[in-house]
């Protein structure tokens, strides 16, 4: 399975790397395989869809 970094996911989805890391911690990015934390970097499955945003009204 191919993986992307938080920076690559941020560029792909148009958000910041901090947002991607937060989504990984909160398990909002789930696909066939969960994101893995290797050292200080999250590895996100390349085919993972962008989580939907839940904005408060």
**Which structural class is indicated by helix and strand composition?**
alpha+beta
Radius of gyration: 11 Å
Number of helices: 2
Low-confidence stretches: none
Shape: globular
Largest sheet composition: 3 strands, antiparallel
Number of strands: 3
Helix content: 25-40%
Arrangement of strands in the largest sheet = 1-3-2
Average pLDDT, all residues: 79
Strand content: 15-25%
The CA-CA distance between the termini, in Å, is 38 Å
Q: Could you state the order of secondary-structure elements as H and E?
A: EHHEE
Total domains: 1
Helices and strands in order, then pairings?
Blueprint: E1 3-5, H1 6-13, H2 17-25, E2 36-38, E3 41-45
Provide key terms for this protein:
single chain; 57 residues; 3-stranded antiparallel sheet; 2 helices; alpha+beta
